[in-house]
Amino acid sequence: MNLPLYFRNGIPASELPPDAGLGDGLLETMRLDRGCVPLWYLHRRRLLRSGRVTVESLREVEALLQELGEVPGAARLRLRLAAGAAPPYWDLAVHPLDPREGMQGVRLYLSETRLEATETANPGCKLLQRGLYNRASAELHDSGITVDALLRDRAGRLIETTRCNLLMHLAGDWLTPDLGRCGVRGVMRDWLAERIALHEVDIDRAALEQADELALCNGVRGVLPVVELDGQVLGPAGPETRRLQQLVTEELW
After folding, report:
1. CB proximity list for 92: less than 8 A, separation 6 or greater
2. With left for phi above 0 and alpha for psi between -120 and 50, is residue 250 left, alpha or beta?
3. Which of 115, 12, 144, 20 lies closest to 67 in space, CA to CA?
4. What's the mean pLDDT when you consider all of the chain?
5. Residue 45: pLDDT band by 50, 70, 90 thresholds?
6. pLDDT band at 252, cuts 50/70/90?
7. Residue 114: how many other CB atoms lie within 10 Å
């Protein structure tokens, strides 16, 4: 089975429309590994939390995911759902994935782009409207998996990177930003929280200087060590970060 592959509402397609054509839609980036999507139950939970996806559409997606068991090795899936479309529309792109890329570390830079906090409880869903994240990425002098931008809200609280959640190990505890106001509640973050003590707290730039280890996580790559912060070299992955990576390897892929 040759990649990439494209599907519209479960039917094979030669290409897919641009994100802008789907309006205010939802996005899930997922990892297919050994014929299954190990974190699908968390992706599904997040989609339902949005309140904008029908159960029938999710059943159709699940049926297609089961058909992808013949895809060799690991793959990156990009699922898009047009919220409120009539009739319902969703599509899926299947791209090859090098699982080793980024595992040795990410260079992280503080972005000047700010996220807007919500006045109501943040559902933490991933939206197709990626303008702010694209703007933050444009600030970087390099691109690729091994470099990323760290975003704050307007109060200066650290929230997330353009594609990952932030993890900070300090004084024996794993900490992660409180996403109650804004930000994407990643599925890998939720998966880790089911297995380790992961404390949600407000984190500012100064707190990063006190961290024993910094790492990032997402549902495609797992756990990635931060080896450089704003040009300051932090060194290779620390022992606690390696433990998280081993946990992912043993239980997921």
Report:
1. 6, 7, 61, 64, 77, 78, 79, 80
2. alpha
3. 12
4. 95
5. very high
6. very high
7. 16
Inter-helix orientation angle 40-50/55-67, to 10°: 160
Specify the pTM: 0.95
128 vs 20: CA distance, rounded Å: 8
The DSSP string of 50-110 is HT-S-HHHHHHHHHHHHHGGGS-SEEEEEEEEETT-SS-EEEEEEEE--TTTTTT-EEEEE
How is residue 36 annotated by DSSP? B
d(CA 244, CA 195): 10
Across residues 191-214, what is the average pLDDT? 97
Name which of 137, 133, 154, 153 is nearest 145 in CA terms.
Answer: 137
Look up residue 61 and give its two tokens: 């997606």
Rounded Cα distance between 219 and 70, Å, is: 21
Closest by CA to 185, choosing from 208, 168, 166, 204, is: 166
Q: What are the φ/ψ torsions at residue 175 (nearest 5 degrees)?
A: -120, 150
Residue type, 116: E
C-alpha span between 120 and 139 (Å, rounded): 30
